[in-house]
Amino acid sequence: MTDFYAIDSALSEEERAVRDSVHRFVDERVLPIIGDCYVEGRFPRELVPELASLGVFGANLPEEYGCAGLNNVSYGLIMQELERGDSGVRSFASVQGALVMYPIFAFGSDEQKRTYLPKMANGEIIGCFGLTEPDYGSNPAGMITMAREQSDGSWVLNGAKMWITNGSTAQAAVVWAKTNGDKDERSIRGFVVPTNTPGFTARDQKGKLSLRASDTSELVLQDVHVPADAILPKSGGLKSPLMCLTQARYGIAWGSVGAAMACYDEAASYACNRVMFGKPIGAFQLQQARLAEMLTEIVKGQLLTLHLGRLKDAGTMTPQQVSLAKRNNVSMATDIAREARRLLGANGILAEYASMRHMANLESVYTYEGTHDVHTLVLGQAITGLSAFQ
Amino acid sequence: MAVCIKRAADMETRFKIAANGTSVDETGVKFDIADFDGFAVEAALQLKEKEGAGEVTVISLGPDTVQETLRKALSMGADKAVQLKTDSVPADALAVARVLAGELKGGGYDLVLFGRMAIDAANQSVGPMAAELLGVPCVSAASELTIANGRGTARRELEGAAEVLEFPLPAVVTIDEGIARPRLPSLKGIMAAKKKPLEVKPAQVGESRVKVIKMELPPERTGGRIIGEGPAAVPELVRLLQTEAKVL
Amino acid sequence: MANTFAFVESRSGELRRVGLEAVTAARQVADATGGGDVHALVIGAPGIAAKAEVIGAHGADVVEVVEHPGLALYSPDVVAATAAERIGAGSYRVALFSASAQGRDLAPRVAAQLGVALGADVTAFEASGDAIVVRHPVNTGKVMATLSITGTPVLLSLRPGAVTAARAPRTARVEAIAPAMDPASARVVPKELRAGNTAKLDLGEAPVIVSGGRGLRAPENFKLVEDLAAAFGNAAVGATRAVTDDGWRPHTDQIGQTGRLVSPDLYVACGISGAIQHLAGMRTSKTIVAINKDREAPIFKIADYGVVGDVLEVLPVLTDAVRKAKQSH
């Protein structure tokens, strides 16, 4: 990917070094195996210790918890490079960092932070984030998973969660449940549930045609009894899980640019090598138009996320700004993946080429972490002050 | 231990000649630790880890842009860095060796490593020259290296053979392919590098008796001729090798 | 009129061809600059003096011979000190070495001891002007540098094969001289010379190289590459970094940017995709044949003759055809 708009010059040396390290890791360790993993429907779990020693998990959390302590632009670049490899690999890192380590960091007690964060940073404990339910996706406020407080302060959880990345491999689940009847969204609290607690089961969802190199599970909690110190004490209301989602969506806005870059690189290289009618197909106007469109959208997406990262580092980033970036970048990435697939012709349907894998993956990325449509309404409300959600 | 490293262009680049005709155009080119020098840094780090002790200092001659290269070595695990500051690296390997030897002398290094050669200038000279100037033993292009009890053993590849040499420390060794692949800097390593000492010293570069008078691109290789598919193409291939290429 | 110096490399009592290339180059300088003698230096175990005649046959006027039982193996400290002493004692304009593995160790040491410049790994040079002008491939051969070198003498190391050793018979005067230092006091001690499979041609010298990459799918399939090399009769076997990193072949077989740089008459790339760092090692081969099942593989862009097909199917058929072609000669 050429640095067409000299965006590297707007990155610090450290940010470039972070990006280059993860880039090399993806080239050497992810790309050689990921096509096969996708076809087999297997997450490359063997990469988890390597990702951990690289320092990818919770990379923007403080060094005192065993994390790399990077700024948010660096975190974004990590997501970009991971997703250049595969959205499933980036999803693993997003869940571990933004959806499990972040809530423990933001809402947990000192003891919870000390107990969990260093081991999650080094990959010893894998986590998952239990918010979405079979009947409550875009509307998490409607969740029916309940946590009933017992006389001794402990809790009993009942409910089901669905579409949970890492669900079947996690040792700890951050589960969101209502504590005061199923209508009170203000009573939503977070709980760190060891997955070997009796009553907790996780089962992989089969038959996925997207994010195949990722573990996606259903969780069932049947009278899962956890001690009083399992609750995330500073969590309260829907705002808590939404703050986690904002972190993850920020990473996804960068990640989708990475997927787009991978497809563009593949298409551009193919266009220069593939000869038809006596010349490379890149010499024909229609293919050049495709490539020009791809490059333009990628550059726009890069500048969007870079500025968003600077705002996040300055402490002024808003969730609506994240919605704008996630919505735009995932949408443009799905288009680029599809156009790259088409440029590759028949070869583009093979797993040895990346574009169709990215194309399929990006359909999940379009839908999860707030669907494209939901983010559209977030922006609509931000613009007009009027909610069109219901 | 000290490791002398050079900042060099990524050799995957499609090089262009600069307008002055005597250098390579650097616009848009990515730079990194020169290939063999990366092996040398890794070899030093592995020796340090094996010993459980020892400090690795990386040294580079050049303008401020080499600081990024030095910090990359620090992020891999080197402890200290020194920039010998000069506007441009001379084409005369002896002039480079003199500056480096000046810095290395009095550093108390038991072992000084270089890459076998700078991947760009490809002279393969600076390491052995520096050793001569320092008056210490040198083995160049080591493909295997062990250090024990103040002595080293190294293997060098020759044409169709290999030689094994022993030497006392302190010594200079230049590192060839086969010893170590440079490790990926971890993200924590990148953060830690910012806190490690990087000293900038003005370099006293003496006379350079080698000057570049021209850089040019060799003639493009024409190729791309597919003569056939599968085993059926063999007769035609053999015919062409006999009659056209005349190599059979 | 200045004389020209040539260091003649030897190994195990035999002169190496690159040593005679240096002598030929020195003869060319002497003839081109209209005078001056060629002085050649050869160092080895007792018996090496017998090679002086061959050195003279390639154009040396004087052959200085150092014979010592402690110099059966290349002892860098002794050889460098001796060469520096001989060069320093004469009035040479140019002193020539080979840029072989030994020469690339030796020449810089000598240059530093004498405090003079070295033009390393040159593919051509011009000694007639005030400065010596040389050509030297840089940036893995992607760029050719022309350098001017001043001072007296100028040391040059010649890329093997840049000059073809040629007979230019003279009756050379042979002088026995002592090493500049006692080999027993050398700090770097040569312990052993491990000959490779002497039946195998070295990659740097073989006119034909047959090379294998990942497309061979398994290390056992390298047998097909070896069979083709054997069919050619004068071929060496090379490998890509991918398969040497995986341990299929030794590192010393690796052709590429940080491996061996080769320039054979014929390079046959079997199941090699053509990564840039591999091309850097073989791009200057005279004729390149590529066999790969992927039509889009980058190797085809630089191949003179490309065959799109499964290397495991094509190689046996090609080996057979080459064998027959060789027999009918």
Q: What this model shows, in words?
A:
- Chain A is α+β, with helices and mostly antiparallel strands and 390 residues long.
- Chain A has helices spanning 13-40, 48-54, 72-85, 87-107, 110-121, 239-273, 285-314, 319-343, 355-367, 372-384, and strands at residues 127-130, 146-149, 155-165, 172-178, 188-194, 200-204, 216-226, 275-276, 279-280.
- The model of chain A has no long low-confidence stretch (mean pLDDT 95).
- In chain B, strand 4 (57-62), helix 2 and strand 5 form a beta-alpha-beta unit.
- The mean pLDDT of chain B is 95.
- In chain B, 27% of the residues lie in helices and 30% in strands.
- Chain B starts with a strand and ends in a 5-residue tail after the last helix.
- Chains in contact: A-B, A-C, B-C.
- The interface between A and B is medium-sized, with 22 and 14 residues.
- Strand 9 (161-168) of chain B pairs antiparallel with strand 13 (189-195) of chain C.
Short description:
The complex is a heterotrimer of chains A (390), B (248) and C (329). With 390 residues, chain A is α+β, with helices and mostly antiparallel strands.
Strand segment tally of chain B: 13
Total strand segments of chain C:
18
Mean pLDDT of chain C: 93
SSE string of chain C: EEEHEHEHEHEEEEEEEEHEHEHEHEH
Give the topology, please.
The complex is a heterotrimer of chains A (390), B (248) and C (329).
Chain A lengths: L12 H28 L7 H7 L17 H14 L1 H21 L2 H12 L5 E4 L15 E4 L5 E11 L6 E7 L9 E7 L5 E5 L11 E11 L12 H35 L1 E2 L2 E2 L4 H30 L4 H25 L11 H13 L4 H13 L6
Parallel strand pairs in A: 1-4
Antiparallel strand pairs in A: 2-3, 3-7, 4-5, 6-7, 8-9
Chain B lengths: L1 E3 L2 E3 L21 E3 L1 H17 L5 E6 L3 H11 L3 E6 L7 H12 L6 E5 L10 H9 L3 E11 L2 E8 L2 E8 L2 E5 L11 H7 L4 E5 L7 E7 L9 E4 L4 H10 L5
Parallel strand pairs in B: 1-4, 1-6, 4-5, 5-11, 6-10, 7-10
Antiparallel strand pairs in B: 2-3, 7-8, 8-9
Chain C lengths: L2 E6 L1 E2 L2 E2 L1 H16 L5 E7 L7 H6 L4 E6 L8 H14 L2 E7 L4 H12 L3 E5 L1 E3 L5 E7 L4 E7 L4 E5 L14 E4 L12 E7 L12 E5 L9 H11 L2 E5 L1 H5 L20 E5 L5 H7 L4 E6 L6 H4 L2 E4 L2 H17 L2
Parallel strand pairs in C: 1-4, 1-6, 4-5, 5-12, 6-11, 7-11, 14-15, 14-16, 16-17, 17-18
Antiparallel strand pairs in C: 2-3, 8-9, 9-10
Helix pairs in contact in C: 3-4, 5-9
